[in-house]
Input
Amino acid sequence: MMLLAAVTVAQAPAPELRGSWIATAGSETFHGSWGAEISRRTPDFAQGYWTLLNDADERVMEGSWSARKIGSHWHGRWTAHIERGRSFSGSWDADEPESPQSKDRTFVDLLTRTLEKDVSGSWRSGSYGGTWSLRGIPPKNASH
Output
């Protein structure tokens, strides 16, 4: 019976992680939403989606992202698509705060931390760049 419970827990899907983001590019500020898909089998790799919203909270652009952890540093790539078929791509980076536990953190830990406080980093696309910040949204209660 104990073995069955252990197998069930091991196969449980990773939690749904999502939230909002803010980014800067020079004097401009942008905002939108994000979501993450993380496999428990590869906790140092993640991928997900993001959307760019206008001031009326309408979707203007959407895209995908991926990330890989190296030491206490996260490095990722992102792509974006707009209606007329144009696409953009770039990279993003984030560093874990230095602590004895930082090397043991997974991307789930990093994104889960967004429920308590913002996580931030930098982004780049060609000669453009800026900063970004993520804030998490608590998962919906399964009983609702």
About this structure: Helices lie at 2-10, 107-112. The chain is about 10% helix and 50% strand.
